[in-house]
Specification:
Length: 142
């Protein structure tokens, strides 16, 4: 897979930039805490978003391939930086169909763990010293 992006920037540190690629079109700015405008996405936010996108797409593929009775899936991702430590945490909110069994719930939990383990971007983050974790919130629809 090849990735090609075009980036532009105007206005110095208080300005903003733009990233465009196949399927990506977003504005960026330097965070206010670093003297920038802080009005648009910033590099760390995009980094965290890429780990979250990898995780949810990996989990979606696993759920479909394993025929999990999935009604809906969402992921809540947070990141925390403290001096030299950076941590990214995902919570997978998995809603199974009303016909799902307790066994399906256990399989869903296992699929969340597997998605975390095999997500390529999350593993790249780990290699860079980022703490990445994923927890499962599994429910059955009414």
């Amino acid at each position: 897979m090849d990735i090609h992006l075009n980036l532009s920037w105007q206005g110095g540190m208080q300005g903003s930039g733009h990233i465009e690629g196949e399927g990506l079109n977003t504005k960026i700015s330097i965070p206010a805490v670093y003297g920038g405008a802080g009005t648009d996405s910033n590099p760390k936010e995009l980094y965290v978003a890429s780990t979250a996108a990898c995780f949810i797409s990996t989990l979606t593929a696993i759920a479909q391939n394993k025929k999990l009775p999935l009604k809906s899936l969402s992921v809540e991702t947070t990141a925390h930086e403290d001096k030299d430590d950076f941590a990214i945490s995902h919570i997978a909110h998995v809603v199974l169909t009303a016909s799902a069994t307790d066994d399906d719930k256990e399989k869903a939990k296992a699929h969340v763990a597997t998605a975390d383990k095999i997500c390529a971007v999350g593993n790249l983050a780990r290699k860079a010293g980022v703490q990445v974790s994923a927890d499962a919130d599994i429910t059955i629809a009414d």
